[in-house]
Amino acid sequence: MKRWMLFGCMALVVALFSSCLKDSESTVTYSGDAAITAFSLGNLKKYTKVKAKNGSDSTAVATVSGSGYKFYIDQVERTIYNPDSLPYGIDAKHVLCTISSKNSGIITIKSMISDSLFYYRSEDSIDFSVPRTIQVNSLDGKNRARYTVKVNVHKEPADSFLWDNVGAVGVFQNAVEMKAVALNEKVFVFANDGISTFVFSTPENGIGWNLENEYQPLPANACRNVVTLGEYMFVLADGYILRSEDGHQWTRIGRASIAQLLAAGSRSLYARDFDGGLLSSDDHGKTWEQEGLDDSPMLLPTNEISCCLVESRVNSEVETVSIIGNRSVSEWDEDEYAHVWSKVEDPSDEKHIDYWMYVSDPDYPTWRLPRLASLSVVACGNGLLALGGQGLGRCTEKGFQHFYYSNNGGIYWSKSTIYKLPKRFESSDVFTMTTDSSNHLWLICGGTGQVWRGRMSGGSPDIPTSYNR
What we know:
Layout: H1 2-27, E1 36-41, E2 43-51, E3 57-65, E4 72-74, E5 79-81, E6 97-101, E7 106-110, E8 117-119, E9 132-137, E10 144-150, E11 164-168, H2 170-173, E12 177-183, E13 186-192, E14 196-203, E15 210-211, E16 218-219, E17 226-229, E18 232-237, E19 240-244, E20 251-255, E21 260-264, E22 269-272, E23 278-281, E24 289-290, E25 292-293, E26 303-311, E27 319-326, E28 339-345, E29 355-358, E30 376-380, E31 383-387, E32 404-406, E33 414-415, E34 431-435, E35 441-445, E36 450-454, E37 466-468
Parallel strand pairs: 5-10, 25-29
Antiparallel strand pairs: 1-6, 2-3, 3-37, 4-5, 7-8, 7-9, 9-10, 11-36, 12-13, 13-14, 14-15, 14-16, 17-18, 18-19, 19-20, 21-22, 22-23, 23-24, 26-27, 27-28, 28-29, 30-31, 31-32, 32-33, 34-35, 35-36
């Protein structure tokens, strides 16, 4: 009897165990998804030819972070690529990358010389000097997807300007003052002939110029009061704020008790009041509020003013607004350097800096921006690029000898060895400069009327994460 009871118990255990196995097997379901969901680069080696002190050639090796270069994944065409090319000199044959797949699908890389597939490992370097095929298989083994990965690298050195002389414009030859801005895929030049300001425009390809306000000229000093915000240009004219999308039709926003329109961020207009202070407007110039300054308002520039916006490297919502220019020669003839102010705008941070900082460092005059005639400054990547004519006041710099570059918001400036003027460039001290939406740099010259459009093949200078010889 006991033997039968023992046998029955064992049978019951086996049945229960078998049932558990069946339940367990029924819950294991492998995914049928096959897709790449993310692709990014690690640190990259960049090689640059340099001259040693003895005059011999040598090679400098810098480590550049690849994480700042965004890769797009086209799930329809099954392509992965970076729209902004990596700098010239990057070693694309030895690249570390991070690849993610949906539901941890199995990732393999096709050989460059055969149809063999190799398992992807993040610690293995990959040769991306040519397009590569990456395959992802679903965990259930039923589906697969193949992607073509192309890592774009500039083929020419960063100092290879591709300048295009887009002709000479007669009216610019006799202008006494000019201001250029780019908006809505056009370049606009506000030219003061000594009596009135006329607005000229050209598409970003530089083909043909149009006079936009032939029958409604602006006051002569309007070209000193031009800024852009969003899809509009704003001008201070006879005490009124005017707004336009095309330079042809101007809408009067309202009367403003301001002395000069100085700058614009992504949200606000900024102006100087009649007491020398700084004001801001968040409603296109209808109302104005006082801005805070961390130094004397007497240091605010009044002439040759440029406004630049530089986006944060880590947060696209945060930007630095800079006002750069000179003080009046008649009042401040002893000035040798330009004056730079900046403000950080961060709409998501209630504790963000709500005042303007004077960033020109008087303790390091050799690193300051010279006080140049028709000084023009533009945002260039995460830096600032400046050019101007003959030195003013106590500044003895010759005109148009160097571009000046700052990668720290205008605190320190140096003569650029990367950016170079066109070989046949010629201008009077009347000059203006801007950049358009396609990253072209425009030089508009007085005296000769020359218009140059240039594009840096290598983009802005890189800031290495480490450096060794």
